[in-house]
Design goal:
Order of helices and strands: EHEEHEHHEEHEHEEE
CATH class: Alpha Beta
CATH superfamily: DHBP synthase
Strand order of the largest sheet: 1-8-2-3-7-4-6-5-9-10
Radius of gyration: 16 Å
Oligomer: single chain
Number of domains: 1
Strand content: 15-25%
Number of helices: 6
Structural class: alpha/beta
Helix content: 25-40%
Shape: globular
Largest sheet: 10 strands, mixed
CATH architecture: Alpha-Beta Complex
Length: 207
Amino acid sequence: MSQYLTLHPSNPQPRLLAQTVQALEGGGIVALPTDSGYALVAHLDDKNAADRLRRLRGLDAKHHLTLLCRDLSDISHFARVDNQQYRLLKMATPGRWTFILEATREVPKRVSHPSRKTIGIRVPEHHVVQALLAEISGPLLSTTLILPNEESPLVDPQDVRAKLDKQLDIILDAGNCPWEPTTVVDLTSAEPVLVRLGAADPALIGL
């Protein structure tokens, strides 16, 4: 059974964050709330955990997994970012965006898109996620918690517990989270390309 940890939504308890970090560093899978539904996260360097993420979601190797990053310095370490892209990212983060960027060598090949060598990057605007990223000192590998054959993610921690209690290591409960998908922008071409319109307004970055 999963450990079910109840965190304060704006001031998460350090003891529970440390417990979560320990689980992730040990290869665990954690369900946590974000600013656009629940997500499944794992340590970036753990191959078995990445495979578990894909199995839980029913994803193949071509599906973009996403790095949850704390800030722009994390992004520039794991994705190639030129000056124009940096200015755009600075305007948009943190927020409800996912950006497709060219992955650096710091990203394991099993995580990036197998043919395009790209990676999804996200800086969520959520206190619990930000606090956890500060403790683990690096990005987390993530995917939105949408179960196979369903179209919408889970947003209620009790629903996560009911459906995945025996398949996860930790479920973090900081209350229900909103659901509207992130706006996805591909930054690998000469000009930004809007891939999916979601919660964030593309006009904010001139699209």
